[in-house]
Amino acid sequence: MTETDARLPNDESMLQYRTACGRDLSRLIQNARPEAFVFILQNVNLEEAHLVELGRSRRLTPNQFQRLLSHPISKNSYQVKVAIANNPAAPQPMVLPFIKYLLRKDLASVSRNVNLSPAVRKLAEHLLQTRMADLTVGEKMALAREASMPIVRVLLVDPDPRVVRAAISNSLLSESELLPIVNDFRTNPVTLHEVSLSPRWKNQYSIILALARNPSTPSALRQAVMIRLLFQDLLALVENPDLPLDIRVPARKRLRAKIQSLSSKEKMALIESGVTALQTILLDEPDESLLVAAVREMKLKHKQILRLARSCQLPKILSLLSVSPHWQIDHEIIQALSANEFTPRGNEIIPLTAQQKLNEIVTQNENLW
């Protein structure tokens, strides 16, 4: 006896496969060896439920799938075709022609089945996308919960918030899939708002940061998420010249609030860091001792010193600038001090040499006119 002969069912088994019915036949289908299916397919007692079980079995050969699909009941059975379509063992040339007849829910199931061939899944996704415009809101919501990612990406930017909410709840949606959508300035505000409300995503820091820097994020929502940003990310927003002012300005306000809560030592460390954005914010601090230290230790750039000279209202700071050997020779600084009404005059604080230079510059400008 050959090995093949040894695998074949004996006469009693073959008779059982051909004549069993009901639950007994279902049990045989579940436990049958691959070579037994040829006899099961000859069984006159096969019902649609049995044929569906056969359609789900991965032990059928291509020829047996063909015989199954040719069975009189299978020809008119939608459920048998669904079972075969979701079976990775079914021959692709057999499956592709009837994929287009599947309903939305079953197309979604096929598109999600990672065990199927890419060609079958892509066809299911394509058919779903072509039918999208004809779907009701309810159908879109159902599809959003169960579809594969290519379909979910489309539904995530649907104008109806209910559809977006359903898409966000899809179990296949990952941070790597959602983040590019939240970062994209073309994403509609409806989607961004729904993402911010999602229990699953609203506490993800990468999502919070993306919402803060997306120009399409509604203003009120941006204000809310900026409160949750880290110091370094607020600074990055402030320093990014490519971002619009309606992002950079509130980021600067929030950064200022964080800076105000720091100790004098920490503020001085920020000045010493040399970061222009931080130094500029600190120039508006009412802490006179901090500004005195910054000016004396030459921690500020020319542009910032010029701003102090023009707008500072603290006489002590203006006096320090006036007597500084470094800034006394800078005509632009001297002119700014001269124009500032809070700058101490004459011999009270400013040395005569500095006052003379101020007067000379003013006289020269008057002569030009």
Number of helices: 28
Oligomer: single chain
Report helical residue fraction.
55-70%
Q: Calculate the mean pLDDT score and round it.
A: 86
What is the topological layout?
Elements: H1 3-7, H2 11-19, H3 22-31, H4 37-40, H5 48-56, H6 62-70, H7 72-75, H8 78-85, H9 92-99, H10 104-112, H11 118-131, H12 137-146, H13 149-156, H14 161-168, H15 175-183, H16 189-197, H17 205-213, H18 219-226, H19 231-239, H20 245-260, H21 264-272, H22 276-282, H23 288-296, H24 302-311, H25 315-323, H26 325-328, H27 331-339, H28 352-368
Helix pairs in contact: 5-8, 8-9, 9-11, 10-11, 10-12, 12-13, 12-14, 13-14, 14-16, 15-17, 17-18, 18-20, 19-20, 21-22, 23-25, 24-27, 27-28
How would you summarize this macromolecular structure in one to three sentences?
By secondary structure, this protein is mainly α.
Could you explain the architecture of this structure?
This protein is mainly α and about 375 residues long. Among the domains are: about 1-100; about 100-170, no CATH class. Helix content is about 65%, strand content about 0%. The protein has 28 helices and no strands. The protein starts with a helix and ends with a helix.
